[in-house]
Amino acid sequence: MSSSLQDTITPLARTPEAFRQTLRDNLYYWRGQGAFSASIQDIYMALAKTVRDYLVADWQQNVNRYWEQNPKFVYYFSAEYLLGRQLHQNLVYTRTEELAREALKDYDLSLDDVLNVETEPGLGNGGLGRLAACFMDSLATLSIPAMGYGIRYEYGIFKQSFVDGWQVESPDEWLYYGTPWDFNQSDDMVEVHFGGHTEGYFDAHDNYRVKWRYSETVMGEPSHLLVPSYNGRAINLLRLWRARASKEFDFQLFDVGDYARAVEQKVRSETISKVLYPNDNNPQGRELRLRQQYFFVCCSIQDIIRRFHLRNSDWDEFPNIVAIQLNDTHPVIAIAELLRIMIDEYYLTWEKAWPIVVKTFASTQHTLLPEALEKWPVSLFERLLPRHLELIYEINRRFLDEVRQRWPNDEGRVRRMSIIEEGPERLVRMAYLACVGSHSINGVAELQSRLLRERVLRDFYEMYPERFNNKTNGVSPRRFIRLANPRLSHLISQRLGSEDWLNDLEQLRQLEPLAEDAAFRAEWSATKRANKVQLAEVISRQLGLNVDPGAMFDVMVKRLHEYKRQLLKVLHIVTLYRRLQDSPYLDIVPRVFIFGAKAAPGYYMAKRIIKLINEVGRVVNHDPIVRDRLKVAYLPNFNVTLGEMIYPAANLSEQISLAGKEASGTGNMKLALNGAVTIGTLDGANVEIRERVGEDNFFLFGLTTEEVFARKAAGYRPYELYEADPQLRAVIDSIRRGDFSRGDHETFRPIVDSLLSHDEYMLLADYAAYIAAQEQVDSAYRDGEAWTRMSILNVARCGFFSSDRTIRQYCEEIWRVKPLRWD
Asked: Which amino acids are annotated catalytic?
């Protein structure tokens, strides 16, 4: 790279006229439109391109420093990145928001009008993808050299709508109008291979080698998005891979009229990056998922090695320059892929290559659910990735030899720890491969990390105790307070004297004394009220449902899964509804129950629970006896954009998963940092939230993890609880006899049967305690001053839950990486 390259880049001036001129130029030269012919979509694209131009100038400064300093890089591998809309964030981060507001006056548009045009990138599903996006934000803000790798899904997560209360999925065409944010890098395309067989041979030095004779080649085409820091110069990259065919078109087949087969390879190849998480309830879906995972991992490993060799040649230095973090089990095949490349393509010995692999990789375990610990059929691996299966066998053989040396004559332990699970169908256990091939295995909350050590991965903890650690999750305060809740952000900055707290969230502690200040409480309450009015307008616009901003906004927004227990929330709503039926003049605090959640397309029970929530809402919302004291609002297509409207308006945060099931949660953090008070179990990061905000500012209920295990071990019988509790029995009978299904007894029979026969997530065991805790909530909310004090203290004491703190811990304790030097 020429040392004078930087001199050819002229930074854009941050002046009103310079910004206006750049916007006009982009509209005219890039979009081909003048001011009078441009649509609002044209204006959005030109404005986004203008902001991107400011980012590019900063990015080039980073590139020069990377070349000069040759720093250690963090490479974050994630199947998901739930980024949210980019324009508003990038305006704020480039300090051009006010310039844009002024410039848009030339087109008789407000900034809000243009911001609402943007389509959210559909690159993630839930907490996993949102966490990855927060981590990328923090890595840039802390000036850590980093790059995220993933897939550029064409359709991403599905778009959710409701038809007669049922979830209906349709394609999320987030790229329909194109995106102004990414840079296509076709010249960096790489090859990805599948199938075929392996052949052994001896090289010129009489060393045994293996050649993978693959049968299929797919091209990986990268594009990258710029990830800026907040009020800083650092810009990182998110590099996403799109699948392309190695052979686009077979002219001979087309020429004889076989049009479908002429493009068959193109369709098969490009299917890999079409949709996030294809339904894996069938063999074709499982195969596509594994193809997806290997595709993005193979592309990314090749890219990392290419980048490494720009400035380095000694493989011993690889772990000193490269740190790869595996975000859950989806990218774990990267361990076998890096080993394959070093042994088969660079001819390193196993003894040299394997320690490099282990020192390079670190893995995060995001679950405690056995079904979420990915396992792939050996037969599928053998067909798609035969060389990788051979390497996994050898990794396993060598590892089990170590286990036998450590615990001789304990074949039970050997079977438990084997990466290959023996059974009717032999399976590759990816979480186990991660434990063997990583120097660090971390959980994402103190409780979950303890359960990983003591239960889920106990054998591996006993083998490698030094590898296990905890890194409690965090969220980006820039995204989820500054952008999502500008009213609260402004109030905090006004009282703290600056916006510095956004990069040092522990400064929120300075708000704690203000909880006793009546004037500040009034301002705080007014801010919350304004946010609720805004959300009420969204509910009215989307659902045609009018809700009272003066009511308690009781919020449960997260992925729909039985362990998260949205169904327990429904039982509470039905309980209150029945009480009003029995006593029409009962004095209760008016509530608006706000739901947002998608169910996986193949998740039968979750989709039935969605139907039940909507049907309960239909009945409750139209019953004159209720007189607007209860409202149920299920907002469809929950995503980051919708979350940013809901979190600031929430009064009560529902975090009611069965203890021992939630890994961490980040919705609980977002809601607490926006002043919602939590009702929850001792599960995931709830434990740490309660420790920090104080027992008096958290509504606790439910069994502990140890009590859950004990009740299950003793033989849990939910039907006995149903029989013993008249209130619970009446609620379940109401659902069973069709009160919420127009008299139909069959629609919700599977839900009732599941609860009464086995109740896997122990809703009935926690029901009475949950109802009692909700009565405490009702009583506390009546004292507005006391509730506001609780709200302030939740924000003031949750500075720990910044993703900046989490990333600092990763940098210091796992990656051993330092910030880029700017001197």
From this structure: 366, 558-559, 564, 666, 670
